[in-house]
Amino acid sequence: MMSSKGREFRAPKSAIMDAYYDFITQSPEPKGGQLTKQMKEFIKQDPDFLDPYNIMYHHLRERYHAEKALDYLNQAYERALKQLLDDEGHWPARLDWEWMENRAIIRTLWNRADALYAHAFRQEALDLFRRIIRYDRRDANGVRFKILALRMGKSYKDYYIEFELMDPSGRHLQSWFDRNAKKFPDEWQGLDWYE
Fold it and tell me: Which pTM does this prediction carry?
């Protein structure tokens, strides 16, 4: 779908946003039942604030509850689309990462694209990652790495093993990107970080 020409989306600030950040940044870090209970409460208080869904998605995935995790991700993605798309189903032209309230939506889009990649919906993942990088032109989320991996035909499993498990510093990933990005100059045109 085309973007609505010139339309910028700015998510409103959630009434629970400050309480959410206070909760997730406390020490010691909330875990297990405490985390789950509070995220569910945040979702109940404001179903359109998407970060609690994202936390539940990652929390359940780490515990091998894939179906439940995807349910939270799908709920978040559906709510993101309801906020983003206009009456004709067009995406906004701009969704700036710099606007703090947009970050939960962008994280939801990123998680959705990553899940699509993991489940071998490669073109759908690539399309969504491309949309995200156009919104976040400085690429604060490292979308460029996933785009390049998809363009080069790298499987999700291979990407995960090579760059996430075996390269915690990210140096190998950056070196790999620097060597291979020039093969796909069309992907990076107009982006703030790419020369």
Answer: 0.92
